[in-house]
Amino acid sequence: MTGSLNGAVGYNAVYTLDPGPEFNIIPLCKYFRVSEGDFNDIYDLVVGREIASGWFNTDQFTLEPLFYYSIARSGYGVADPESATSIYIPFFIGLASMRLTPEEYMELFERFCRICNLYNNKTIILPTSRIFHFFMANLKYRVSLPDNVVAVTIEKQLSLGSVIAAPYPTNYHAIEGLSASEIEFRALDQKEYFASFCGNIRSPARESLLRSFQSSPVPVDVVPVDVKLRKHYPTDESALRMVFSKNKSVFSIEPAGDSPSRKSIYDSLAAGCIPVIYQSARFHMPFEALIDWAKACVFVLGNDEKRDIISYLRDIPNEEIEERLEYIWSIRNYLQFPIGAPADRKNALDQILLELEMARLRRLSAA
User: Of the four, 9, 31, 76, 152, which is 20 to 30 A from 230 by CA?
Assistant: First the structure.
């Protein structure tokens, strides 16, 4: 994982400074419990197995290697750090925090900070999975990121300019040559289910949701997550069923689980389904300057959270539902990482780098 590409385009020029496999390949292999010699390319682990045309069994916590894979094949790379606006250091910090001992992790973290200090006039890009925040908050050591680091995280819960919200990696990837033909836009009158829920039933709130579904006067679908192979993560079969369930559903109910946000929200959007999010689960949606989230999602507020969710959603006019479905289909690629996507297709990497540039300009103006 060395080297950078030439020919940066647009508003960001990124130099990739690879500190070595102990920062990325080793945590990645430990996370997936494989040896370093068991895969030919990072793509094999990160994207996963193809479960339908354009749909893959992609792990929800692989933002860090997925960002690396995307940036390495983009036109944003430059070969000289002095000509770069940003420095990207492939430190898979979230995966490392889940698989390394605190001592191993702290050694890497301190080395990472020393590298950042060598480029204190540059913005350092640090993609992180959400588990990183939990790990840092509970670590017995008091550590903090250098001032020039901007974290890109799949679950932003604080209003900080040094943290950018990014979408979860989803099962769908806009891969060039793959049309995802099984997944087509479905208007309201083409949907088979009024609402669906995909996930495990492990909390009282989800048990209550299941009871609401069982008494629903309209067609609904429940896809339980099969956790036989990996805890909290579906097998190929259940992931594939989830994809088609969401595509055939008008709404997807997205109650919080172990954390406020869910990967399922972004799978719903990719499949052309309206996510229903409870406002008590407080987190920042990505790309708020670009996407009208009030149009893309239904946010259930205040006392409405206590209502029967099916009854609540049935009060939404059909015209509004049609507008939401069309809007979701128009913005879904903005939330996808460009695994070989055509260069002219705007995607999540473009939006992340735009927000990084805005963060860099804010830092310069404050200096």
Answer: 152
